[in-house]
Amino acid sequence: MTSAPDPRKCLLVSLLIVGCLSMTGSALCAQTLVYEGRVVDADTLAPLEGALVVAVWKESRGEGLLYKERLKVARESLTDKNGRWAFTGPVEGGWPESDSESIVSFLVGYRLQAPSFYVYCKGYVSLGRSTIGFNGFIARPFRHAKTGIAGILLFKPGDTDAEKRTYREKYSGALTVPLVPIDNPHERLKRLDFDFEYAPNTRMISSSFRSNKSYVVYGLQKRRRKGQRFSDYPDLPPDDHVQVPILYRLKQQRSRGYILMSPQVTSGRSIEIPRKDAGGQKSED
Fold this sequence. Notes:
28% strand, 2 domains, 5 helices, 20% helix
């Protein structure tokens, strides 16, 4: 006759399994990556010095009514004279691909999401988490090892009504993204050896393909009316000045003539230098 298993031993084994999964999840979330890119004028492709790039990572757990989300970390960097920026951040954990992964994620704890980027520059339309109203461009290199597909993922919704209509008809899709095929996309994007326009051979690929999210070029367009200003800020706790002090000061002091200039970016850390315009006049942000 087989004896019933000891419930205390079963509980111990269960705790050990969950503990191993938790350590594995923590190890994965502890991985870091250097995020970098450039900020340029969307029309002239001239580099923009002193632009502020902010990234916010959040983590979540559960689904539906059990879904919870919280801030993981935030990073910021000012662009140098070549429009380059860089900082170190965690590697995203990705979304669960099956019900079993969702259950494991819920048991293990929070799962790191992809970062949300915000870009601000004096005199230009800012880029927030939502791209509604954004008329510049976002470009990332892409290479798929199995299929050999390579090119640049280009988001450029257009400025005029005709351009926006063309984008919606040809390049906007719920499950696809436009890819401009070129060789050596990462190297060419770093050199800005690209016209940031959709080519005749532009193709739509599945949005499930993972792009190189560690490098990106943002093209900002100059403000054409007074209402286009810094309006979309990340949802951060009251102590956001600890992780993103430049953004915090920009939010607090933009009405008192505070601008960004002469940045130095070293090992993912940014230095900001406030100044006043000549004659002590306040500058418009």
